[in-house]
């Protein structure tokens, strides 16, 4: 069984990235959606039911991440934990899943890099990078996908 803890932002897209593999390989899943966006997951369950997915294949547990997510991660029937969220949530759930030797895949608090190559227009690169930094500046949640690490590759030097 795969435990899948999803975040508030892009709850359907992030869930489906791992759910496709889970269902295609014949596994079952328990999804713990963010307490801010549970309706997306509930609607998906309704669609699966109407499409004829057998009972018990796609399951949902609702609750707060700190308590419900931890309890799900440390459950003895969980073979894999998939979690997208913050670093602290990853520490808590990861430690819990390690107690039952569950495999883990986590996407935690991103540090989105921007690489600018020498043949790209610098002014355009700066505009794109600034957009990446500020597009979520008004969000009350930490912008996990905001640009944070601009990079410029070193010029190649060849030894002859």
From TrEMBL:
The Aldehyde dehydrogenase domain sits at: 2-137
A family per Pfam = Aldedh
Do the record's keywords include Oxidoreductase? yes
Entry keyword set = Oxidoreductase
Give the residues annotated as coiled coil. none
**InterPro entries given for it?**
Ald_DH/histidinol_DH, Ald_DH_C, Ald_DH_N, Aldehyde_DH_dom
Q: Does the keyword Oxidoreductase apply?
A: yes
For this chain, one GO molecular function annotation is: oxidoreductase activity, acting on the aldehyde or oxo group of donors, NAD or NADP as acceptor
Question: Which SUPFAM superfamilies does the record associate with it?
Answer: ALDH-like (SSF53720)
Protein name, UniProt field: Aldehyde dehydrogenase domain-containing protein
Q: What organism does the record attribute this protein to?
A: Methylobacterium tardum
């Amino acid at each position: 069984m795969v435990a899948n803890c999803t975040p508030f932002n892009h709850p359907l897209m992030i869930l489906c990235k791992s759910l496709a593999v889970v269902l295609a390989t014949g596994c079952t899943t328990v999804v713990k959606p963010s307490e801010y966006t549970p309706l997306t997951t509930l609607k998906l369950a309704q669609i699966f039911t109407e499409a004829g997915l057998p009972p018990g294949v796609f399951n949902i547990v609702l609750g707060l991440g700190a308590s419900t997510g931890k309890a799900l991660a440390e459950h003895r029937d969980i073979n894999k934990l998939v979690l997208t969220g913050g670093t602290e949530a990853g520490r808590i759930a990861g430690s819990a899943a390690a107690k039952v030797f569950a495999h883990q895949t986590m996407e935690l608090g991103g540090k989105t890099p921007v690489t600018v190559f020498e043949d790209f227009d610098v002014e355009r690169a700066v505009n794109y990078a600034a957009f990446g930094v500020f597009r979520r500046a008004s969000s009350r949640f930490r912008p996990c996908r905001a640009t944070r690490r601009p990079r410029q590759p070193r010029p190649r030097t060849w030894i002859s």
